[in-house]
Design brief:
Length: 227
């Protein structure tokens, strides 16, 4: 039973071919394409409004130099939100429950922010490793600690997204299994458990959107430190 709970996180395959590529490419197919008409449809209007709101919130703490990243960060956030939401549907696979995929997003983008800081303002970038006014005996220790915390950032990004989505999916499956087991024996308890399951599903919808927003927001904050 415990093995079957974690089977949902295994990458599906068909004829020996992993289908994770299909799961990653599918969200882009679902987005409506702009039409040549003078007025857009309601769906495109809502999508544009939400994207503009998210982008303005992300770019607010950044200066003008960081606005070049607006398209990349907004696209990443929409992509993560769509994948996380599709993963809540029955009989679907959530690619963002794989730590390797999340690290593939986190490490290159974090490394790009560090390289930008070292290229544009190396003194300020290295100055983050040693706070001003540090006593001389503590300088080596603080440099080591700040360096470790710097390299932990991409790991924290990937693990946070993976852990939150994995925990939510496991909890939903555990409670859903309890509902099916309790239904023939204790219908009243099963109905109450199903109510909890419904509320948990609503919570997971919020978590799917919030975690994608937090992932991109932290990247934007890392970018702000280096521009």
């Amino acid at each position: 039973m415990m093995v079957s709970f974690f089977d949902q996180f295994a990458s599906p395959s068909f004829l020996g071919i992993p289908l994770i590529a299909v799961a990653i490419a599918l969200p882009w197919v679902l987005f409506p394409t702009p039409s040549s008409r003078w007025t857009n449809s309601r769906l495109i209007t809502v999508q544009t409004w939400l994207t503009n709101r998210f982008t303005s919130q992300l770019m607010m703490p950044l200066n003008v130099g960081g606005h070049k990243w607006a398209l990349l960060l907004a696209s990443l956030m929409v992509f993560l939100i769509t994948i996380n939401m599709l993963g809540l549907l029955p009989y679907t696979f959530t690619p963002t429950t794989q730590l390797s995929l999340n690290m593939g997003f986190a490490v290159p983008l974090w490394l790009a922010t560090v390289i930008i800081g070292m290229r544009n303002q190396p003194t300020v970038a290295l100055g983050h490793l040693l706070p001003e006014g540090t006593p001389v005996p503590l300088i080596p220790v603080l440099i080591i600690m700040e360096t470790i915390s710097l390299f932990i950032r991409p790991l924290a990004l990937g693990v946070r997204l993976t852990a939150n989505l994995t925990a939510g999916h496991l909890l939903i499956q555990l409670i859903a299994t309890a509902v099916f087991v309790l239904m023939p024996m204790m219908p009243v308890v099963a109905i109450l458990t199903a109510t909890v399951l419904f509320l948990l599903t609503l919570l997971e919808v919020a978590v799917a959107m919030i975690q994608a927003y937090v992932f991109v927001l932290l990247l934007s904050l890392y970018l702000q430190e280096n521009i």
